[in-house]
Design brief:
By secondary structure, this protein is mostly helical. It has a domain at 20-36 and 46-71. It is built from two helices and no strands. Helix 1 (8-34) runs antiparallel to helix 2. The termini are close together.
Length: 78
């Protein structure tokens, strides 16, 4: 699709940055839940159990990292 428009390295770099950003967002969600801010308001809803939170955010993080390997080692069409 971008063949001849962007060099292959630019496509791989952009894909890598986007995938790493998504993995960092999942990690930040777990971080905020496990170590909340001292001044954070008390939520009105019950929190998810920690094991559920880790699974719900850990699996997409693994998928993001698998996508990163796909970006690095897959064919870009260029």
């Amino acid at each position: 699709m971008l063949e001849g428009v962007l060099p292959e390295r630019a496509v791989v770099l952009t894909g890598s940055v986007l995938v790493l950003f998504s993995a960092a967002c999942f990690a930040a969600a777990v971080w905020r839940e496990l170590w909340p801010d001292i001044n954070a308001p008390r939520p009105e809803v019950r929190r998810l159990p920690r094991p559920v939170l880790l699974v719900l955010n850990g699996f997409p993080m693994l998928v993001a990292l698998a996508a990163l390997f796909g970006v690095w080692f897959g064919e870009t069409g260029g």
